[in-house]
Specification:
The complex is a heterodimer of chains A (about 525) and B (about 425). Chain A has about 525 residues and is mainly alpha-helical. Chain A has three domains: about 140 residues, no CATH class; about 180 residues, no CATH class; about 150 residues, no CATH class. Chain A is built from 25 helices and seven strands. The N terminus of chain A is likely disordered. With about 425 residues, chain B is an alpha/beta fold. Chain B is about 35% helix and about 15% strand. Chain B has eleven helices and 17 strands. In chain B, the strands form five sheets. In chain B, strands 1, 4, 5, 6, 7, 8, 11, 12 and 15 form a nine-stranded mixed beta sheet that branches. In chain B, strands 2-3 form a two-stranded antiparallel ribbon. In chain B, strands 9-10 form a two-stranded antiparallel ribbon. Classes of the chains: A mainly alpha (about 525), B alpha/beta (about 425). At the A-B interface, helix 10, helix 20, helix 24 and helix 25 of A face helix 2, helix 4, helix 6 and helix 7 of B.
């Protein structure tokens, strides 16, 4: 395995950074433009031509804010002739509230997607708000991860403790999730036996779990209608043990030892154990910490990553290792500044370019189609069809989860539950489902909001006496954030003629756009 | 054609199981350019799967039912509480007194009284009793419904092979969304968004327009996505327009039959399960919640048991009458049992050490009672059955090899059930 070469300078910088208070761009961090240029150069291959503004606008709005650009934002973006308009837009979007919400939800779903925990184990709203706050403050990634693994207290008071209570305070689940999510290292197979495909021994997994061996899950009795929330508290003694495979009744106490070899003693307290783990996890010497974050973000933006999956950075050699080296080194120097990384990546030509045709990924470095995440589907539908999130007149049936974790409400809940998918899956494995297709095809929401009657986008356009051509163009702009091609326009106009009933035909066109592949993807 | 052949090679090399990861690897190897899709790969194996006609209904008792107040009462001991025991159609077998509908049918079902596990938390135990694996934080195992749908479900079918009624069940994980549970929120109404709000002809017209517009979009660099999307829409439209969706319409049943199952959500869910199995669905889960009786247990059970008793009995009788029980495995179980000690709020807390389950159909011999607990129901004294043994038993009844491996999301093949052996005495 390649360990990244770590310069003494960046270690020193990091030491200084941890003393400095607000994590705004550190003076010593390279300017994003400079790193972006070096990233583009390090690919050593053809970069795609600069994307048309309408493609770039939809992409950057969805990626950074999770929302579609509105018609006015598109028109303004295209009309602007200044050479640095994309750079300014990126800076503006990165400081919007929508950016914080969008990425907070990504991470909330990454760390909680697999847990079947009920509301007492996972105070979802509090945890959700905490993540938003971290992104709003642009708290450095190493601090966020430290807060999650070292949290103690009741989970309806101390938000980050929900990471641990949602995994039932179970050292095995916490170790496996922490390693997978924050390091991209799949070590959990070693829980039962030496992993077949990776260099991990069973002992190493349990040594990692031992860092959580003195963290104890406690259920609180019902206080003032709060339900029975769970807490993580410290146990004063006791050891995390591994079963001896040869003698299943025999338990072997495990000394906490990190994957890179650092350890603490068996006497270490819970606080000492988890703080030591946080230091080892987030150390610049840790070969996976920065890489796995960069790989995740890159994958979410490009639809492909340096490694085949975001969960598996540990066992294979990356594609474009030089690019990853540049990003890793400079991101560590930035003090794990999340906005810095987004800005750098979105400033690259690789990101701002676009290639049409089926071979985009194979022949050049370009953004590939990425499925919208559940919250983004909701935002896109709402913006395209212009409905009120709290409209109670539209039924919002959703698959109820049992045990019921409090998720969203109403229409947002319906979309969220129907479209939810593990954000850590590779794009090739994210597939649409029948309930998703049924929702977009037949739901009361889509029926009501694509109607030519009532208070709808279409009814409004018809009332204003717009021509068929104008209406088709507006619908494309609202739903797909672009103008229709000449061919598309003619398909729609021909369809309207053939159907004979203008209002019905336009409803069908709008239905068709909402049900299209393009609507559900970012490219 | 060459690409299909490549795909078949991949399949054979992983022991006859379609390997998603291997398929993706084969895509990475350049087959993608030839336009081969995952769904093509699946349809290519159609001829290999023998349609066995077997099916499974899981009656899931969410919350963990008490063995004392269900099928392992201990009358006359301090652990039992006031619930009495009644005789059944099996000589010498007694069950708790409120199960009056089921008692005469016990000769057609087998009872497992010695199930045991270590998972006393609802979420973890629900996962265990749906997958045969304890949650591990990394690998996500497919739910049994998805596994059964993948293993023995028909390849070409216009309804989903796995339907979950009144609950979400556990998803397909690495088996792929094709085997995801189709969820019916409320059996008394059609599934969400299943009826089209426009006439079939207009839906068809819309789909044609969509296809035409998508061809334009496909040329802008998303051809594969469009193809997947179109496949999904064809499949969905086929379902929306299929006459088989009548299986979801309970108002087509005579009132008499609906009354036999009971008008509770669980009763009507069981009736829908029978209709779905009849229509060719492979796996149906019906959930009854409320078994988490930490306080005032007797009062809760008075409401809880009668509809479940009535519906379970009606389902077994109906399946038998229609000749469906021979090919349908019926499972009644929850995630764990409850404490022998009655707590201070007159309830029982979680107890994974002992719990029970009922199995019937698909070759399971009726009237068998497996396993024994001590006089006070505290420990198992004969024939402990681990969850993996239970799942091997399900597999045997359904004609599935429990050691069949599927490629997982962590790049390691995962057997359907890793350990254990089927309970032979049941067959």
């Amino acid at each position: 395995m390649d360990l990244p070469r770590q310069s003494a300078l960046s270690v020193l910088l990091l030491g200084l950074l941890s003393l400095a208070a607000p994590p705004i761009l550190h003076a010593a961090a390279p300017a994003p433009q400079e790193t972006a240029a070096r990233v583009d150069a390090a690919f050593h291959r053809a970069l795609p031509p600069r994307a048309k503004d309408e493609i770039f606008l939809r992409r950057v709005f969805l990626d950074l804010t999770g929302k579609l650009p509105g018609p006015d934002e598109i028109q303004r973006g295209i009309a602007d002739r200044t050479p640095d308009k994309r750079t300014r837009l990126i800076a503006k979007l990165l400081h919007s509230d929508a950016y914080a919400v969008n990425w907070a939800r990504y991470w909330r779903d990454v760390v909680t997607y697999h847990t079947p925990a009920s509301g007492n184990y996972l105070r979802w709203e509090l945890f959700d708000r905490w993540w938003v706050e971290q992104f709003r403050r642009n708290r450095p990634w190493n601090e966020i991860v430290t807060a999650l693994v070292t949290a103690s207290g009741i989970n309806d008071e101390i938000a980050p403790v929900n990471y641990l209570t949602a995994l039932y305070g179970n050292p095995i689940e916490i170790a496996a999730t922490t390693s997978r999510v924050f390091l991209g290292v799949q070590i959990q197979c070693a829980q039962c036996h030496d992993a077949k495909t990776e260099p991990w021994k069973r002992e190493q997994f349990h040594q990692l779990a031992a860092f959580f061996g003195r963290a104890k899950l406690i259920q609180h009795k019902d206080v003032d209608g709060r339900g029975t929330p769970y807490a993580i508290e410290s146990r004063s003694d006791g050891q995390y043990c591994m079963t001896d495979k040869k003698a299943p009744d025999h338990l072997i106490p495990m000394q906490p030892r990190f994957l890179t070899g650092e350890s603490v003693s068996l006497d270490a307290s819970d606080v000492e154990r988890r703080q030591a783990l946080a230091r080892f996890l987030t150390s610049p010497q840790n070969p996976w910490f920065a890489r796995s974050y960069i790989n995740r973000i890159w994958t979410a933006l490009f639809g492909w990553g340096f490694y085949p999956t975001v969960n598996d950075v540990g066992s294979s050699k990356p594609r474009y290792p030089e690019v990853l080296d540049v990003l890793e080194k400079d991101w560590i120097a930035s003090g794990y500044d999340m906005r810095w990384l987004f800005r750098t990546i979105t400033l690259t030509r690789a990101y701002q370019g676009h290639l049409e045709g089926p071979k985009a990924e194979a022949e050049t470095v370009a953004v590939c189609p990425v499925r919208l995440r559940p919250e983004q589907v909701f935002e896109a539908l709402q913006k395209a069809l212009g409905f009120d999130e709290n409209d109670k007149t539209i039924p919002a049936p959703a698959p109820s989860s049992s045990p019921a974790v409090q998720r969203h409400h109403g229409l947002r809940n319906m979309i969220y539950q129907t479209f939810k998918v593990d954000p850590s899956l590779p794009q090739a494995e994210m597939q649409g489902t029948i309930p998703q297709a049924l929702l977009l095809m037949n739901s009361a929401l889509v029926k009501a909001t694509t109607s030519a009657k009532g208070k709808t986008v279409l009814a409004d356009l018809l009332a204003k006496g717009k021509s068929d051509e104008e209406i088709v163009a507006t619908l494309y702009e609202r739903v797909l954030a672009r103008q229709p091609s000449t061919k598309e326009k003619s398909i729609c106009l021909r369809y309207i003629q053939k159907v004979g009933n203008r209002a019905e035909a336009l409803e069908d066109v709008l239905w068709g756009l909402v049900n299209s592949t393009e609507f559900l993807h970012k490219k | 054609m060459l690409p299909i052949q490549t795909c078949v090679d991949v399949r054979i090399s992983s022991r006859g199981v379609v390997s998603r990861r291997a398929f993706l690897r084969c895509l990475a190897g350049g087959v993608a350019a030839a336009g081969l899709r995952w769904s093509d790969c699946l349809s290519a194996r159609a001829h290999e799967i023998r349609r066995q006609g077997k099916a499974c209904i899981l009656l899931w008792m969410a919350g963990g039912p008490s063995q004392f107040e269900t099928f392992d009462p201990k009358p006359g001991t301090d652990t039992q509480g006031p619930t009495k025991a009644i005789s059944t159609s099996v000589p010498g077998l007694q069950i708790a007194e409120h199960w009056t509908h089921l008692a005469p049918l016990m000769k057609h079902a087998a009872l497992l009284r010695s199930l045991t596990s270590k998972e006393g938390n609802h979420g973890r135990a629900t996962y265990l009793l749906h997958t045969s694996y304890a949650p591990s934080g990394g690998i996500v195992h497919p739910g049994f419904g998805s596994t059964v749908a993948q293993q023995i479900g028909p390849d070409d079918f216009d309804l989903p092979s796995f339907v979950s009624i009144s609950g979400t069940s556990i998803g397909p994980s690495f088996l792929g969304v094709r085997y995801a549970p189709f969820i019916v929120t409320n059996p008394n109404q059609p599934p969400d968004n299943l009826p089209a709000p426009v006439p079939g002809q207009r839906l068809q017209r819309r789909l044609d327009l969509l296809r035409e517009l998508e061809q334009e979009q496909a040329q802008n660099g998303a051809a594969e996505r469009v193809q997947d999307h179109q496949t999904l829409y064809q499949q969905t439209a086929r379902m929306v327009l299929s006459p088989r969706t009548k299986a979801f319409q309970l108002d087509l049943e005579p009132d008499r039959v609906r009354d036999q199952y009971g008008r509770s959500a669980f009763g009507q869910g069981c009736l829908m399960a029978r209709r779905l199995i009849e229509a060719g669905v492979t796996f149906v889960e019906v959930q009854a919640s409320g078994w988490d009786t930490h306080s005032n247990e007797l009062k809760a059970l008075k409401k809880l048991v009668p509809p479940v008793d009535q519906a379970t009995a009606a389902l077994l009788a109906d399946l038998r009458t229609r000749g469906l029980l021979e090919r349908t495995l019926v499972i009644w179980m929850g995630e764990f049992g409850r404490m022998p000690r009655i707590n201070l709020t007159a309830g029982r807390d979680h107890y994974p050490t002992v719990f029970n389950a009922i199995l019937a159909g698909a070759g399971i011999q009726g009237g068998r009672v497996i396993g024994k607990t001590d006089a006070r129901g505290i420990e198992i004294i004969d024939r402990p059955i681990e969850v993996s043994d239970l799942f091997c038993t399900f597999c045997q009844a359904l004609g599935i090899d429990p050691r069949t491996e599927n490629e997982s999301n962590v790049g390691r093949p995962i057997p359907i059930v890793e350990h254990g052996a089927a309970v032979r005495e049941l067959f």
